[in-house]
Design brief:
alpha/beta, 8 strands, four-stranded antiparallel sheet, Dna Topoisomerase Vi A Subunit, Chain: A, domain 2, four-stranded parallel sheet
Length: 172
């Protein structure tokens, strides 16, 4: 898929020495203007735990930061790299993301302060609702609450891009 190619996703086939635990996982690079600043790894099979892994000692970072410059007067925020890429590349809503509901750092708020509208796409679970509520306390946001049990990616697959744009009030 084109979105995966543009995001430079890959699968770890022959890991470097000391990185054998990432074999067979999806590699998700965190790309900035200066290059790749981190890589996270996702299990490709639902039964494999942990679902996500990071490099030892790596600090949590904001994902898809290049969309901050591409965005016009609005931007989306969501939880998870795959949801971020789905919003940005497949649905057409510029978006940044964090790797989990508890990964937001206070200084990220400053990066979004100049946007007229910030949409938080909240997963349909308790952590997703809490993530949206915590951002709403820091920044004027429009919360786009996804149905119970859904995230951006699953809602996109189930209902399509127009459904998500409509929920955000961005259709038309």
């Amino acid at each position: 898929m084109e979105a995966a190619r543009l995001a430079r996703f890959g699968v770890v086939g022959e890991p470097e020495i000391g990185h054998e635990q990432f074999k067979g996982r999806l590699s998700i690079p965190y790309i900035t203007k200066s290059g790749i600043v981190d890589i996270r790894f996702r299990a490709l099979h639902p039964a494999i735990e942990p679902k996500y892994m990071g490099m030892t000692g790596a600090e949590t970072k904001m994902y898809n930061v290049l969309d901050i410059e591409k965005a016009g007067d609005f931007i989306g925020v969501c939880e998870g790299e795959l949801d971020t890429i789905t919003l940005s590349s497949c649905i057409g809503i510029p978006c940044i993301g964090v790797p989990g509901a508890n990964s937001w750092k206070k200084h990220y708020t400053r990066l979004l302060a100049d946007f007229e509208r910030v949409f938080v796409f909240a997963d349909g679970d308790q952590p997703g609702k809490e993530f949206a509520a915590s951002l709403a306390r820091e920044l004027p946001v429009t919360v786009v609450q996804l149905p119970d049990g859904e995230d951006v990616n699953s809602a996109y697959v189930k209902y399509g891009a127009d459904y998500i744009k409509e929920k955000a009030g961005l259709n038309g």
